[in-house]
TrEMBL record:
One Pfam family linked to the record: CECR6_TMEM121
InterPro entries: CECR6, CECR6/TMEM121
Taxonomic superkingdom: Eukaryota
PANTHER family with a match to the protein in the record: TRANSMEMBRANE PROTEIN 121B (PTHR47399)
Keyword Transmembrane tagged: yes
Compositional bias (Low complexity): 24-40
Protein's recorded name: Transmembrane protein 121B
Transmembrane segments: 58-81, 87-105, 125-144, 175-193, 233-254, 266-290
Family, as annotated: Belongs to the TMEM121 family.
Disordered, as annotated region: 1-40
Keywords from the UniProt entry: Membrane, Transmembrane, Transmembrane helix
Length: 358
């Protein structure tokens, strides 16, 4: 009779099962079997999405290597065209490409460890391994190899010879120099997992700011190519601001990887913006008030960015200190993008125990 009543009234059985779950009592094996079937079904539904993500990341990785080879090849051609003894710069490009290959391998390994729930170690700078693991190191290697090439080309008469003997010589140099922006975009796309996540939006907002700084500084680099900057000190200030803008992604790529928001890194990010916008503003003020050059729109951008970065520094440092004061100073201020990947199980479910403990 009991079995017949259960067969005749399945809704009451479902209500009985849900009440046992809410009260903390063990659930019969039939409900666990249905839970396993739901898990496998959701896994089958998520398979096309995972394949799409892996294909998209593979495409961006291929674009990264293509842009690295293209930019390095053009700059090496300009260097070797004037002096065959500069063939050693090719070895630098091979080191950069190999370093980025190691970065992608390490990043993929970290992603697999997070999916399997392994304990994550810390990097050499004390940050927890996250979605942008080792990305800042890859960009640092790139900047270190890219900077001396551009300085050597700008400080010598290479462009003058290239402009005479090579079609699109100076234009080719400008295009090759600005390939850093799409390379950074491809780097972000090669490691981002969730296209709608807050981490991706934060990365792209930082990318747009960096891209604007690079374009701002490169407008004065073009003036250097036309010999329109009168003083050597102004020339060095322009070059320093240009390479500071290229090195700025190292900081915010680290912030996207790190788990702690510290005032020291906020001050470092502010100092980077100051090293970019302050020299450019000083150069433009000198050109406007001394050499009567027309006012550039980027001059207003420099003033606006300096004011915004100052207000942002004060606001965020006050917020971090307020959180630490409320916490009693025992725990560092944490920031997260909703639920981190370290709290996710292999099938995409949230590890509630890890979230509650954090």
């Amino acid at each position: 009779m009991l079995s017949e009543s259960r067969t005749r009234n399945p809704q009451a059985d479902l209500l009985h099962t849900s009440s046992r779950k809410d009260s903390g009592l063990p659930v019969p094996s039939s409900s666990s079997d249905s839970g396993r079937s739901m898990t496998s079904g959701e896994l089958m539904q998520s398979a096309p999405l995972l394949a799409h993500r892996s294909t998209r990341r593979a495409l961006y990785k291929a674009l990264c290597f293509l842009l690295l080879i293209l930019q390095g090849g053009v700059l090496d051609f300009y260097l070797i065209f004037t002096d065959l003894y500069r063939c050693s710069w090719i070895a630098t490009d091979l080191v950069v490409v190999s370093g980025w290959g190691v970065f992608f391998v390490k990043n993929a390994r970290s992603r697999r460890e997070r999916a399997c729930g392994f304990h994550q170690k810390s990097s050499m700078f004390g940050c927890n391994l996250g979605e942008f693991t080792y990305a800042y190191l890859a960009w640092l290697i790139y900047v270190i190899a890219y900077t001396p090439k551009v300085v050597l080309i700008l400080e010598t008469s290479i462009l003058e010879l290239v402009a005479v003997k090579v079609p699109c010589g100076v234009t080719g140099f400008k295009v090759a120099a600005l390939l850093s922006a799409p390379l950074l975009f491809c780097l972000i796309g090669s490691v981002v997992l969730d296209l709608n996540g807050s981490t991706r939006h934060r990365a792209h907002s930082c990318f747009l700011s960096t891209c604007l700084d690079v374009l701002d500084s490169f407008t004065l680099v073009e003036m250097l190519l036309r010999n329109e900057v009168p003083s050597a000190y102004l020339k060095y200030a322009v070059l320093a601001a240009f390479f500071a803008a290229l090195a700025a992604p190292v900081l915010w790529l680290y912030e996207l990887t790190a788990a702690e928001l510290r005032c020291a890194w906020l001050c470092a990010r502010f100092a980077t913006g100051l090293l970019v916008n302050a020299p450019l503003l000083a150069v433009r003020c000198f050109l406007v008030f001394v050499h009567r050059v027309p006012v550039s729109v980027f001059m207003l951008k420099n003033v606006f960015f300096l004011a915004c970065r100052t207000l942002e520094l004060v606001e965020q440092c006050a917020a971090v200190r307020g959180v630490r004061r409320l916490a009693g100073g025992t725990e560092p201020a944490q920031f997260s993008h909703c639920v981190s990947e370290n709290d996710m199980c292999p099938h995409g479910y949230v590890n509630t125990l890890a979230v509650s403990q954090s």
